[in-house]
Amino acid sequence: MKKLFSLLMILGVFAFGFNAVAQDDTTGTDSTAVEDTYPESPDYSAETETEEAQSFDQIIKEKFIEGDPAFMVYPLICLILGLAIAIERIISLNLSTTNTAKLLSKVEDALESGGVEAAKEVTKNTRGPVASIFTQGLMRMSEGIEMVEKSVIAYGSVEMGRLERGLVWISLFISLAPMLGFMGTVIGMIDAFDAIQAAGDISPSLVAGGIKVALLTTVAGLIVAIILQLFYNYCISKIDSIVNSMEDASISLVDLLVKHNLSK
Fold this sequence. Notes:
- The chain has helices at 2-37, 44-53, 56-66, 69-96, 100-124, 129-139, 145-163, 167-199, 204-263.
- By secondary structure, the protein is mostly helical.
- The protein is rod-shaped.
- The chain crosses the membrane at residues 71-91, 167-190, 210-232.
- Keywords: Cell membrane, Cell projection, Cilium, Flagellum, Membrane, Protein transport, Signal, Transmembrane, Transmembrane helix, Transport.
Protein backbone atom coordinates (compact mmCIF):
# COMPACT_ATOMS: atom_id res chain seq x y z
CA MET A 1 0.00 0.00 0.00
CA LYS A 2 2.80 2.38 0.85
CA LYS A 3 4.46 1.70 -2.52
CA LEU A 4 1.13 2.27 -4.31
CA PHE A 5 0.47 5.47 -2.36
CA SER A 6 3.99 6.74 -3.12
CA LEU A 7 3.53 5.94 -6.84
CA LEU A 8 0.22 7.82 -6.92
CA MET A 9 1.85 10.81 -5.24
CA ILE A 10 4.68 10.85 -7.78
CA LEU A 11 2.20 10.60 -10.66
CA GLY A 12 0.14 13.42 -9.11
CA VAL A 13 3.21 15.68 -8.85
CA PHE A 14 4.18 15.01 -12.46
CA ALA A 15 0.58 15.60 -13.59
CA PHE A 16 0.41 18.91 -11.68
CA GLY A 17 3.71 20.04 -13.10
CA PHE A 18 2.70 19.15 -16.65
CA ASN A 19 -0.59 21.04 -16.26
CA ALA A 20 1.27 24.10 -14.94
CA VAL A 21 3.72 24.07 -17.82
CA ALA A 22 0.87 23.64 -20.32
CA GLN A 23 -0.99 26.59 -18.78
CA ASP A 24 2.14 28.75 -19.00
CA ASP A 25 2.60 27.84 -22.64
CA THR A 26 -1.06 28.56 -23.36
CA THR A 27 -0.88 31.88 -21.56
CA GLY A 28 2.21 32.89 -23.51
CA THR A 29 0.58 31.84 -26.74
CA ASP A 30 -2.62 33.68 -25.90
CA SER A 31 -0.78 36.84 -24.95
CA THR A 32 1.18 36.66 -28.17
CA ALA A 33 -2.02 36.09 -30.10
CA VAL A 34 -3.66 39.00 -28.32
CA GLU A 35 -0.70 41.20 -29.11
CA ASP A 36 -0.81 40.08 -32.72
CA THR A 37 -4.57 40.62 -32.89
CA TYR A 38 -4.25 44.38 -32.25
CA PRO A 39 -2.38 46.00 -35.10
CA GLU A 40 0.22 48.59 -34.39
CA SER A 41 -1.02 52.14 -34.41
CA PRO A 42 -0.05 54.00 -37.56
CA ASP A 43 3.05 56.11 -37.26
CA TYR A 44 1.76 59.56 -38.13
CA SER A 45 5.01 61.19 -37.11
CA ALA A 46 6.77 59.71 -40.15
CA GLU A 47 4.13 61.16 -42.45
CA THR A 48 4.40 64.52 -40.73
CA GLU A 49 8.17 64.52 -41.08
CA THR A 50 7.79 63.66 -44.77
CA GLU A 51 5.40 66.54 -45.29
CA GLU A 52 7.66 68.93 -43.43
CA ALA A 53 10.65 67.67 -45.39
CA GLN A 54 9.11 68.90 -48.64
CA SER A 55 10.89 72.01 -49.76
CA PHE A 56 9.21 75.12 -51.12
CA ASP A 57 10.21 74.42 -54.71
CA GLN A 58 8.75 70.90 -54.51
CA ILE A 59 5.42 72.32 -53.34
CA ILE A 60 5.48 74.84 -56.18
CA LYS A 61 6.16 72.06 -58.71
CA GLU A 62 3.27 69.99 -57.36
CA LYS A 63 0.86 72.90 -57.50
CA PHE A 64 2.06 73.77 -61.00
CA ILE A 65 1.30 70.24 -62.19
CA GLU A 66 -2.03 70.12 -60.33
CA GLY A 67 -3.08 73.40 -61.91
CA ASP A 68 -2.56 71.98 -65.41
CA PRO A 69 0.65 73.16 -67.12
CA ALA A 70 -1.40 74.09 -70.20
CA PHE A 71 -2.78 77.06 -68.22
CA MET A 72 -0.07 77.62 -65.61
CA VAL A 73 2.64 78.15 -68.21
CA TYR A 74 1.23 81.52 -69.33
CA PRO A 75 1.53 83.29 -65.95
CA LEU A 76 4.98 81.68 -65.66
CA ILE A 77 6.04 83.23 -68.98
CA CYS A 78 4.78 86.62 -67.80
CA LEU A 79 6.80 86.23 -64.60
CA ILE A 80 10.01 85.26 -66.42
CA LEU A 81 9.82 88.04 -69.00
CA GLY A 82 8.72 90.63 -66.46
CA LEU A 83 11.52 89.75 -64.06
CA ALA A 84 14.08 89.82 -66.86
CA ILE A 85 13.06 93.34 -67.86
CA ALA A 86 12.79 94.49 -64.25
CA ILE A 87 16.25 93.20 -63.32
CA GLU A 88 17.75 94.84 -66.42
CA ARG A 89 16.07 98.13 -65.50
CA ILE A 90 17.22 97.94 -61.88
CA ILE A 91 20.84 97.35 -62.92
CA SER A 92 20.66 100.15 -65.48
CA LEU A 93 19.10 102.59 -63.02
CA ASN A 94 21.66 101.81 -60.33
CA LEU A 95 24.45 102.42 -62.84
CA SER A 96 22.79 105.71 -63.82
CA THR A 97 22.94 107.05 -60.27
CA THR A 98 25.55 109.79 -59.97
CA ASN A 99 26.96 111.69 -57.03
CA THR A 100 25.84 115.12 -58.24
CA ALA A 101 27.61 117.06 -55.50
CA LYS A 102 30.94 115.47 -56.37
CA LEU A 103 30.35 116.00 -60.10
CA LEU A 104 29.50 119.67 -59.60
CA SER A 105 32.65 120.12 -57.54
CA LYS A 106 34.77 118.58 -60.31
CA VAL A 107 33.09 120.73 -62.97
CA GLU A 108 33.66 123.86 -60.93
CA ASP A 109 37.33 123.04 -60.43
CA ALA A 110 37.69 122.28 -64.15
CA LEU A 111 36.04 125.58 -65.11
CA GLU A 112 38.40 127.51 -62.86
CA SER A 113 41.50 125.67 -64.03
CA GLY A 114 40.90 124.85 -67.70
CA GLY A 115 37.64 126.47 -68.73
CA VAL A 116 34.70 124.94 -70.56
CA GLU A 117 36.75 122.40 -72.49
CA ALA A 118 38.21 120.97 -69.30
CA ALA A 119 34.71 120.78 -67.77
CA LYS A 120 33.44 118.92 -70.84
CA GLU A 121 36.21 116.36 -70.45
CA VAL A 122 35.12 115.78 -66.87
CA THR A 123 31.45 115.26 -67.79
CA LYS A 124 32.26 113.05 -70.79
CA ASN A 125 34.33 110.74 -68.58
CA THR A 126 31.52 110.47 -66.00
CA ARG A 127 28.74 107.92 -66.42
CA GLY A 128 25.06 108.70 -65.95
CA PRO A 129 22.28 110.95 -67.29
CA VAL A 130 23.30 113.90 -65.11
CA ALA A 131 26.75 113.95 -66.67
CA SER A 132 25.21 113.67 -70.16
CA ILE A 133 22.99 116.67 -69.48
CA PHE A 134 26.01 118.61 -68.22
CA THR A 135 27.86 117.76 -71.43
CA GLN A 136 24.99 119.00 -73.60
CA GLY A 137 24.78 122.22 -71.60
CA LEU A 138 28.52 122.88 -71.77
CA MET A 139 28.49 122.30 -75.53
CA ARG A 140 26.01 125.20 -75.89
CA MET A 141 27.99 127.49 -73.63
CA SER A 142 29.27 129.56 -76.55
CA GLU A 143 25.66 130.36 -77.57
CA GLY A 144 24.72 131.93 -74.26
CA ILE A 145 23.13 130.96 -70.96
CA GLU A 146 19.60 130.89 -72.40
CA MET A 147 20.63 128.32 -74.98
CA VAL A 148 22.28 126.28 -72.25
CA GLU A 149 19.03 126.24 -70.27
CA LYS A 150 16.99 125.15 -73.31
CA SER A 151 19.50 122.43 -74.13
CA VAL A 152 19.47 121.12 -70.56
CA ILE A 153 15.67 121.01 -70.46
CA ALA A 154 15.37 119.32 -73.87
CA TYR A 155 18.05 116.73 -73.21
CA GLY A 156 16.64 116.14 -69.74
CA SER A 157 13.39 114.96 -71.36
CA VAL A 158 15.38 112.61 -73.59
CA GLU A 159 17.22 111.12 -70.62
CA MET A 160 13.97 110.72 -68.72
CA GLY A 161 12.52 108.74 -71.62
CA ARG A 162 15.57 106.48 -71.58
CA LEU A 163 15.17 105.87 -67.88
CA GLU A 164 11.54 104.84 -68.34
CA ARG A 165 12.35 102.49 -71.22
CA GLY A 166 10.96 99.00 -70.70
CA LEU A 167 8.60 99.89 -67.86
CA VAL A 168 5.61 99.70 -70.18
CA TRP A 169 6.34 95.98 -70.70
CA ILE A 170 6.45 95.35 -66.95
CA SER A 171 3.12 97.15 -66.64
CA LEU A 172 1.74 94.97 -69.45
CA PHE A 173 2.75 91.74 -67.70
CA ILE A 174 1.27 93.01 -64.42
CA SER A 175 -2.09 93.41 -66.16
CA LEU A 176 -1.78 90.33 -68.36
CA ALA A 177 -0.88 87.74 -65.69
CA PRO A 178 -4.18 88.00 -63.71
CA MET A 179 -6.14 88.00 -66.98
CA LEU A 180 -4.50 84.76 -68.04
CA GLY A 181 -5.19 83.34 -64.58
CA PHE A 182 -8.86 84.28 -64.84
CA MET A 183 -8.98 82.72 -68.30
CA GLY A 184 -7.76 79.46 -66.75
CA THR A 185 -10.44 79.87 -64.09
CA VAL A 186 -13.21 80.19 -66.66
CA ILE A 187 -11.91 77.27 -68.71
CA GLY A 188 -11.59 75.12 -65.58
CA MET A 189 -15.18 75.85 -64.58
CA ILE A 190 -16.36 75.04 -68.11
CA ASP A 191 -14.58 71.69 -67.89
CA ALA A 192 -16.23 71.03 -64.53
CA PHE A 193 -19.70 71.70 -65.92
CA ASP A 194 -18.94 69.57 -68.98
CA ALA A 195 -18.02 66.69 -66.66
CA ILE A 196 -21.29 67.16 -64.76
CA GLN A 197 -23.26 67.19 -67.99
CA ALA A 198 -21.55 64.07 -69.29
CA ALA A 199 -22.10 62.16 -66.03
CA GLY A 200 -25.66 63.39 -65.53
CA ASP A 201 -25.00 63.80 -61.82
CA ILE A 202 -23.24 66.26 -59.54
CA SER A 203 -20.38 64.54 -57.79
CA PRO A 204 -17.56 66.23 -55.85
CA SER A 205 -15.00 64.04 -57.59
CA LEU A 206 -16.21 65.24 -60.99
CA VAL A 207 -16.02 68.97 -60.29
CA ALA A 208 -12.98 68.94 -57.99
CA GLY A 209 -10.48 68.76 -60.83
CA GLY A 210 -11.94 71.66 -62.76
CA ILE A 211 -12.34 73.82 -59.67
CA LYS A 212 -8.74 73.13 -58.60
CA VAL A 213 -7.46 74.21 -62.01
CA ALA A 214 -9.60 77.32 -61.79
CA LEU A 215 -8.34 78.31 -58.35
CA LEU A 216 -4.68 77.50 -58.94
CA THR A 217 -4.48 79.47 -62.18
CA THR A 218 -6.07 82.47 -60.49
CA VAL A 219 -3.64 82.30 -57.60
CA ALA A 220 -0.70 81.97 -60.00
CA GLY A 221 -1.76 85.04 -61.96
CA LEU A 222 -2.23 87.12 -58.80
CA ILE A 223 1.14 86.06 -57.37
CA VAL A 224 2.90 87.01 -60.61
CA ALA A 225 1.17 90.41 -60.64
CA ILE A 226 2.13 91.09 -57.01
CA ILE A 227 5.80 90.22 -57.58
CA LEU A 228 6.09 92.32 -60.73
CA GLN A 229 4.24 95.21 -59.08
CA LEU A 230 6.89 95.37 -56.36
CA PHE A 231 9.68 95.56 -58.94
CA TYR A 232 7.74 98.12 -60.97
CA ASN A 233 7.23 100.40 -57.98
CA TYR A 234 10.91 100.15 -57.09
CA CYS A 235 11.88 101.18 -60.63
CA ILE A 236 9.46 104.11 -60.54
CA SER A 237 10.81 105.34 -57.22
CA LYS A 238 14.38 105.01 -58.51
CA ILE A 239 13.53 106.99 -61.65
CA ASP A 240 11.87 109.73 -59.59
CA SER A 241 15.00 109.98 -57.45
CA ILE A 242 17.27 110.26 -60.51
CA VAL A 243 14.99 112.84 -62.17
CA ASN A 244 14.99 114.99 -59.03
CA SER A 245 18.78 114.82 -58.95
CA MET A 246 18.89 115.78 -62.64
CA GLU A 247 16.69 118.83 -62.08
CA ASP A 248 18.62 120.01 -59.04
CA ALA A 249 21.96 119.45 -60.76
CA SER A 250 20.81 121.27 -63.89
CA ILE A 251 19.86 124.35 -61.89
CA SER A 252 23.19 124.20 -60.07
CA LEU A 253 25.03 123.89 -63.40
CA VAL A 254 23.33 126.97 -64.84
CA ASP A 255 24.15 128.94 -61.70
CA LEU A 256 27.74 127.73 -61.92
CA LEU A 257 28.05 128.79 -65.57
CA VAL A 258 26.57 132.19 -64.82
CA LYS A 259 29.06 132.60 -62.00
CA HIS A 260 31.89 131.53 -64.32
CA ASN A 261 30.87 134.09 -67.01
CA LEU A 262 30.64 136.88 -64.47
CA SER A 263 34.06 136.07 -63.07
CA LYS A 264 35.74 136.20 -66.48
